[in-house]
């Protein structure tokens, strides 16, 4: 099932029923993966599920544009990444997401043991995750894929269609920007 479209001829000649049936198979095959991938960008399961729904609507609407020069999975992941990037660029999403994150910390959803060390460590991790969201998209996506999705630099390069050296450069620059933000105190308020 690496490429569901291999046995299918001209997508533009498919009936609506055939397209709907194909979409059902695509959703069954890639639905969980798309939701998980979206989560690495948005860090909220509800929003990730909404993103996945939007992505599959776009897949259905633009299936006739799929050129088969890459795998279907790569094409769907690219749509997902672009949709997530658009969402993260929106000021409303950023303020809502950060407000929710702070609310979770305040309401105790972050598991905090009684020791001061653990409390500080959890707060630092939350603040770091928040600061990653403030990085420019080209650094943020690399940091998310590398640290949260745990993809290798080679996998990231293949997925984003950039060279491994570009991935490494952006990863290093993202780390430097994050370090400057944290040392500069910008992350405290």
TrEMBL record:
Kindly list the GO molecular function terms attached to this UniProt entry: DNA binding; sigma factor activity
Ligase: is it a keyword of this entry? no
User: What residues does the RNA polymerase sigma factor 70 region 4 type domain cover?
Assistant: 130-178
* Xref: Pfam families: Sigma70_r2, Sigma70_r4_2
InterPro entries the UniProt entry points to: RNA_pol_sigma-70-like, RNA_pol_sigma-70_dom, RNA_pol_sigma70_ECF_CS, RNA_pol_sigma70_r2, RNA_pol_sigma70_r4_t2, RNA_pol_sigma_r2, RNA_pol_sigma_r3/r4-like, WH-like_DNA-bd_sf
What UniProt keywords apply to this chain's record, in alphabetical order? DNA-binding, Sigma factor, Transcription, Transcription regulation
Top-level taxonomic group: Bacteria
Q: Which SUPFAM superfamilies match?
A: Sigma2 domain of RNA polymerase sigma factors (SSF88946), Sigma3 and sigma4 domains of RNA polymerase sigma factors (SSF88659)
Q: Residue ranges of the RNA polymerase sigma-70 region domain?
A: 27-91
Picking any one GO biological process from the record gives: response to stress
- Family per similarity comment: Belongs to the sigma-70 factor family. ECF subfamily.
Protein name per Swiss-Prot or TrEMBL: RNA polymerase sigma factor
């Amino acid at each position: 099932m690496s490429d569901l479209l291999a046995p299918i001829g001209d997508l533009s000649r498919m009936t609506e029923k055939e397209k709907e049936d194909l979409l059902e198979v695509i959703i069954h095959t890639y639905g969980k993966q798309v939701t998980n991938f979206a989560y690495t960008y948005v860090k909220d399961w509800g929003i990730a599920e909404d993103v996945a729904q939007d992505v599959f609507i776009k897949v259905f609407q633009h299936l006739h544009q799929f050129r088969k020069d890459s795998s279907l999975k790569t094409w769907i992941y690219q749509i997902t990444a672009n949709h997530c990037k658009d969402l993260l660029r929106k000021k409303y999403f950023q303020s809502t997401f950060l407000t929710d994150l702070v609310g979770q910390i305040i309401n105790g959803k972050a598991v905090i043991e009684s020791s001061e060390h653990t409390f500080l460590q959890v707060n630092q991790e939350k603040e770091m995750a928040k600061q990653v969201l403030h990085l420019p998209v080209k650094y943020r996506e690399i940091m998310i894929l590398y640290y949260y999705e745990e993809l290798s630099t080679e996998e990231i390069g293949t997925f984003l269609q950039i060279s491994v050296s570009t991935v490494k450069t952006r990863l290093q620059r993202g780390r430097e920007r994050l370090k400057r933000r944290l040392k500069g105190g910008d992350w405290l308020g």
